[in-house]
Structures are given as structure tokens and as C-alpha cells.
Amino acid sequence: MASQFFHEANKLLKQHNPSSFATKSERFKTIRLVDKQLRELGVRRLTLKGIKPKHIDAILQKWKADKLSPGTIKNRMAHVRWLAEKIGKQGIVPSSNTDLGIEKRVYITNENKGKSLSQEQLDSIPDQHVKMSLRLQELFGLRREEAMKIHPKKADHGDHLILDAAWCKGGRDRTIPILNEAQRELLEEAKALARGRSLIPAQRTYVEQMKRYENVCIKVGLERAHGLRHRYAQQRYFKLTGMQCTAVSGILVRDLPVELQVIDKDARAIITRELGHARLQVTAVYLGR
């Protein structure tokens, strides 16, 4: 159950709508998470005006203890800082991330950020459309928007999916191979559930379904579920090369024999296209390098 702090913060969010839905969505998710975690830390009866530096420090220390990346912490603190500014309490959050002890952002860490869905997590999700979107992310490496906007019947081209540009980031369509029976079975399930539509139920808008998706991710501990996409890329790399990528094995590409470096480069080019990216450097975030 949300606190008075969250209700007041959410009201403020609705009063100050940014031009970007993504920004609004991330602010909402971060502030809801702050509310949840502060209550888990024992903070009770907190109001929006009652938030203090000690609360900011408590949540920051938790994020550091959880070993979140500097980039994730910086993004979250930006939303907390925005909220503090809107209530006239800028001083409770230092303007400099350095003053908060947040390290510089590292884009390629060689850490394994891949995640899989457990049966326990799946069983705890009552919304069948959200559950299907998450399963499609896991088996096909879809982004969250794609996994909701996809029309499974339209996308199915036998041995591959074609994602329409309208569903994809950057307005670029792309092709994803169907390589195994598990993918085929899941796609048939998705088609039966969607009934010729997308995986956004007829009675909901995309924005409403995104909120449901985000709430589910928080509930089952998946954050934005981007780790499912990481895991897909890693498994695809293994299928193409017969070896684990750097993020899984810990072996740097430069330490591989020359012939394996060639195989590595070719595999990364394929995975980059399948994930809908234009640069190999972006794929290194998933695979390490």
C-alpha cells in the first residue's frame, strides 16, 4: 500500500507533465520505488514535505549496497532531485553526483547483467498480457515497448519475426530468427492471446499497459526487465560462436586467439542487427568486450 508521501508525489507528477512519456514514466517508477524502499527501511508516516537529507542518504546507501551501476543511480537521483526542486527543498539533494559519492558512469562494465524469468516470478503475475510480453522479451530479445506493441500474427513469417517499424525504437523494422521449438510454441501462445491484435488489451491504452508492466516488474524484482534482453544476446552469442561472451566468461576479446576474434566480430555484427542497434559498441554493453 502506497504512503502519503507517494500520493502527494504522484499528484505533483501529474501537475508537471514532461513532454516525453518515457521521462514521466521513469519519474513515476523511481518515486514509487523510493516510497517502497523507504518503508522497507522502516520509515513510517512520511509526507512529501517531510522528506529530509537522512531519507535521501538512506535510499542512496541502499542502492550502493545493492551494487547498482553508477548510471542507474544517477538516473534515479535525477528524478529525486527534480522532486525536491518542485517542493522547494533543493538543498536536501546535492547538485553534484560527486558530492553524493556516485562514481563516474561506466557504459561497458563486462558485468553479466543477464536475467531469466523464474517459474515463481511468472506464477506471481496475474496479467496474462504483461506476462506474455516478458516471456517474449526473454526468448526473442525484444525491448519492452516492442513486446507490448507487437502483433504476433503479423510478425510471424515462419522461420523469423519481422518487427514493424511502428513497434521499434528509432522507427526501424528488424528481423529476428525463430531458432527453436520453445520460441515457436511461445509465439503460438502469443497469437492465441492477442487474437489478431497487439499485446495491449483492447480496453487499455499503451500508457496504461506500460504502467501495469512497470508495476509488475517492480513487484517481481525485474526493474525494467532489460536483463532479459541481455540474456537473449548472450545466449545468441553462444549459439553463433560455441563459446561464452566476455560478460559470462570473464575472458576479454583481446585475449582470444586471432581466429576466435574473427568469429567474435562476425557474431557481434549479427546480434547487433537482430537487437535493432546500429553500432557494435552498443552490443558490447550486453556481451562485454
Name the descriptors.
mainly alpha, 3 domains, two-stranded antiparallel ribbon, single chain, 289 residues, globular, 3% strand, 57% helix
Question: Would you write up a description of this structure?
Answer:
- The chain has a two-stranded antiparallel sheet.
- The chain has 14 helices and 2 strands, in the order ααααααααββαααααα.
- It is globular.
- The chain has 3 domains: 4-92; 119-227; 234-287, no CATH class.
- With 289 residues, the chain is an all-alpha fold.
Major sheet size, sense and barrel closure: 2 strands, antiparallel
Bin the helical content.
55-70%
Indicate how many domains the architecture comprises. Answer: 3
* Number of strand elements: 2
Number of helices: 14
Integer average pLDDT: 90
Report the structural category.
Answer: mainly alpha
- Poorly predicted runs of 5 or more residues: none
Q: Alpha-carbon distance between the termini?
A: 43 Å
Query: Which value, in Å, is the CA radius of gyration?
Result: 21 Å
Strand order of the largest sheet: 1-2
Query: Could you spell the SSE succession in H and E letters?
Result: HHHHHHHHEEHHHHHH
